Amino acid sequence: MELSNLEVLPGRTIVRHLGLVQGSTVRSKHAGKDLLAGLRNFVGGELKAYTELLNESRQEAIDRMVQQAQAAGANAVVNVRFSTSNIAAGAAEVMAYGTAVVVE
Amino acid sequence: MELLIQIGFFLALLVVGLVAGTLNERRHYRRLREDEAALRGILVFNERRPPDDLPLRTGQLVVGSVVIGEDYFKRIAASLKSLFGGRLVVYESLMDRGRREAIVRMKREAEHLGATMVFNVRFETSSLAEDGTGRQAAFSAEFIAYGTALVPPAAA
Lengths: 104, 156
Prior knowledge:
A: alpha+beta; 5 strands; B: 3 helices; 48% helix; elongated
């Protein structure tokens, strides 16, 4: 499965469009990490635990999107976009979406 | 007496925030300058499609992300400044650091793939401010930079 956030895949021709595919996941920070991050928030700087958490979530969202694309018979997803939103206290939704296509 | 202890505690946190936060920020900026200099070879564009006359390459999605939190001093300074409005200088540097770090990480991923160019770069910022307890939580923000790295066939 090839992923690209361009409208085209460089050097390849899109033969068929299969429509929008998306994948998302909602994760919450676990209490220990949250506490550490809370302490970190007094001195500032990167909150590594959250960076990792959101990276894992994004990978999960991409995986789900890819599954959907595979189910639709696509071999690539173009025009991929990400979005993160803070939906509830301590929980974040990470979403990935794109257009499933068949390329040759 | 209790009030005095509380005020002392607050001032101590403020000083810790100011000193540690400033040191952290300075260290981060130094590291950013080094990383940016090291990754100068990777060109980043926000054009939607690469020019047609480029030699054949395959595209691959690359992402860089980071979560950056504020320190206690920034938090107090920003809430005081918000009373009057205007520029929140303390947050401007935080946003700048986050975004540059995200670009650096994205470029590093591209370099790892053997690419020298990244097209259609997009940014995403989201705030992770709320927490479960309902009290005013510290502000932290996630920065994402992503784009399509053009990988020469030999490296792919």
